[in-house]
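Fig. S4 source data, part A: sequence.
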Amino acid sequence: MGAAAGGDKMTGERTSEYTQTELLACVAAHLRADCTSVFVGTGLPMIAAILAQRTHAPNLLIMFEAGGVGPQVPSLPVSVGDSRTFHRAVAATSMHDVMSLLQNGYVDYGFLGAAAIDVHGNVNTTVIGDWERPKVRLPGSGGANDIGSLCWRTIVMMNQDRRRFVEKLDFLTTPGYLTGPGAREAAGLPLGTGPYRVVTQLGVYDFEEETRRMRLVACHPGITVDEVRANSSFEIVIPDEVGVTAAPTAEERRQLAEIDPERLVLGRIETVKKRETASTTTPG
């Protein structure tokens, strides 16, 4: 992740007028490479995939759980079964066929949300608290376990604080690197798969090769390493050099406005600004 600067005057001009949600969408979009495939759900991951396809990755093959493969999505669908997920698609198939592609190793990237995550990228979206008497019962796995188990590279998007970046999960819904190096493979999961990046409101993380522990790659503009540390219950690996994510370009913001014209996910600018202030406060 480079510093926020420079670029082509027509499409690469950086702007300081953006919301946190727009920044996250752009950061996530740049994690997708051209001529690859990505399995996405609803919300911000969907926006990021569409943005990538409209900008630097025109040959990105987007796949939806309900069966849309390779669409050119005209505007933000409200669900993975929305008719727009089949717009100009290369295939209008089924959940069975899409999951079969996943199982056969044809999906490069998978996007997940998370209620909680640990240092090895294991994810909980099932319960907070004891299984028998939980404080909160969450939606569960859906297709998340399949995606996290079988995609070559899994990207997690979530909010970060000490309650979400936890030492020990209350429930393991989706495997990351389990207990560390070699644990996925020992459990029977495909060699070379696993968590690739974690994107939060504070920064971007990968996983150290030797330990499979979460490592800071870049902070978002205005965020410090101390804030990153303060908002995690486990110790994040901090390298000698930490990058800064690039601010959205004017063209990227224009595309986002076309993708989500009603700002159903991007949120109203006033609302997002208030939420940003709350979400980046360092806990006491």
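Fig. S4 source data, part B ends here. The longest strand covers residues 214-219.
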